[in-house]
Amino acid sequence: MATNTFNSIHHNHSLRRRRHPVDSPPTTATTKNYPFYLKTNRRRRHPFPLPIFRRHPTTNPSTTPQTVNDKDDVSFELLKHHLSAQNFRQADEETRRLLISLAGEAAVKRGYVFFSEVQFIPKEDLKAIDALWRQHSDDKYGYSVQKRIWKKVGGDFTKFFIRVGWMKKLESCEVDQYNYRSFPGEFIWELEEGTPEGHLPLTNALRGTQLLTSILNHPAFDQGDDDDDDIGQEDRQSGVNIKPLMGNASFKPNYTF
């Protein structure tokens, strides 16, 4: 009788000590937070379901984890949602995140895109991003729109920045002088009648204009040479002589967007 009681106590004690891994609380993976501009972050969960807009078919997302730098599993659904809701500030931020993701693993780890990495972004993906911007802005926004304006001014970035509204005219000057807008407060985030064509999406030129040049010259935006004879002709005929604010020796271009 005593032996049976001892065995029963020993058995119950063993059951209490055993613990299956599934009973343990799951550990929470830490994510690295990146600064605001041209910095990537983890894919955000949206409070309600969004339609899937993918370049390639994928397996069930509930069983296959998504990685931010997997080019074959890049989703444009969040960009589509922001644009359809006219949330252009959020759409601009999502566009930058997509470019980093599409540029490759090195760009994701670094947090921004080198101009030399733009060539690795698939043509169909840049076209998809551009198509969404044009669709939800009545063809007023998008990289292809910016490419057309850039060609019209003969590839002159000062004139281009003025045309798309990335530079503003200084009212206090007797002659036409321009300065760069500060990000984000001085940029236009509403689609209005007076919003400059090609104003969005923004491209960071803090390290120079090579990144923007590489995007505009990407094969995704090759539209043929039909307009080559007209490049710069509009400005030559108008006789406009644009002089940005460059006379001050302490002035430095500020491409902080």
TrEMBL record:
Molecular function GO labels: tetrapyrrole binding
SUPFAM superfamilies with a match to the protein in the record: GUN4-like (SSF140869)
Composition skew (Polar residues), residue ranges: 58-68
All residue ranges annotated as the GUN4-like domain in the record: 71-219
UniProt feature, compositional bias: Acidic residues: 223-232
CDD domains xrefs: GUN4
Extent of Basic residues compositional bias: 10-20, 48-57
GO terms under cellular component: chloroplast
Region: Disordered, residue numbers: 1-33, 48-69, 223-245
UniProt-listed GO biological process terms: chloroplast-nucleus signaling pathway
PANTHER family, per the entry: TETRAPYRROLE-BINDING PROTEIN, CHLOROPLASTIC (PTHR34800)
Protein name: Tetrapyrrole-binding protein chloroplastic
